[in-house]
């Protein structure tokens, strides 16, 4: 494939829309499980300061909203502008006796090569503020097991597609605006916004190194907790493996509903959206040979590490995205500090944080920590005693020495390390 940069600029939008129909929700999980109760006190002041007709949400890498399901059930949902449809968690469905089809199933796909065949449910009614929508053929999947978060469902952009939706990350609230009442506020730039099968598509670009700038159509994905994830097609065309020297490898067993995925993380020179430029962003590129990140025709997925830096207004009826830098705009793009990735783990004999991957030459690697180790204590306290917010802050700081008690098989080990940014 030659001259892909030129092809991306000229690529007919109708073809792009057709390609993205085959994409499925990518949920890149970053951080630990959000706990609404833990953060209630921290959010009291924010709630008190919210403007009239606003809807509060909890943000921890992703946007979590409380939604009413079937008139009486409260659910903790992710709002994902890259989701192709509504999804419900299987445990949430079972706990609330939501009927599912015994025989009828639906094939879904996402990152990775798997295309699982899952049960479905019909007549799912969602209510948020003044909006109500009934869904059919809703896939039922084990979102909590995949994400290690208490997620009851995933909501796509179609819920808001006849409205104007404002997202304020500084104060964590949404506003739903009637199109005839919407006035473009001062200080906002705009981009063309295309919506097909719920997927929102905009144009952006990134300066990878001094001599290589890549621009193209990108899925604006609030369900991705990353900055910009390039497809493997883009990575292969521009020979990322050869030209990007300083990078680290992250394999994931459950990157999405399609199964395993692999990416390399690196620091680019800049990233551009509309007239705004973000300096030294931490980006990643896929090496997948199958699945949603291996398709040709788009740049990749633009996630919340970028989007949280703006006030966003989705004008769905007029196909416009308005954006304005907020207080997070100039924040440093942090890379992994500890050098490991994992998730909370609990069995009959052990409870802790299971390390699934250790990055080469990282602080964890140099300290002797291995994949498969289970952290039971952090700085003298049981890991389960930390809230998700406290645990994440400790893992991502670079001044305090961390002391771990780790279970490796049947042997207990003590480790010390000072987190240090990899890139």
Short overview:
With 423 residues, this protein is mainly beta. Helix content is 15%, strand content 41%. It folds into 3 domains: 4-25 and 180-325, Cathepsin D, subunit A, domain 1; 40-177, Beta Barrel (Cathepsin D, subunit A, domain 1), CATH 2.40.70; 340-417, Pdz3 Domain (Roll), CATH 2.30.42.
Describe this structure in words.
- By secondary structure, the chain is mostly beta strands.
- The protein folds into three domains: 4-25 and 180-325, Cathepsin D, subunit A, domain 1 (Beta Barrel); 40-177, Cathepsin D, subunit A, domain 1; 340-417, PDZ domain (Pdz3 Domain, Roll), CATH 2.30.42.10.
- It has ten helices and 32 strands.
- The strands form four sheets. Strands 2, 3, 4, 5, 6, 7, 8, 9, 10 and 11 form a ten-stranded mixed beta sheet that branches. Strands 15, 16, 17, 18, 19, 20, 21, 22, 23 and 24 form a ten-stranded mixed beta sheet that branches. It has a six-stranded antiparallel beta sheet with strand order 1-13-12-25-26-14, with no helix packed on it.
- Strand 12 (164-168) and strand 13 form a beta hairpin.
- The longest helix has 10 residues, at 40-49.
- The relative contact order is 0.15.
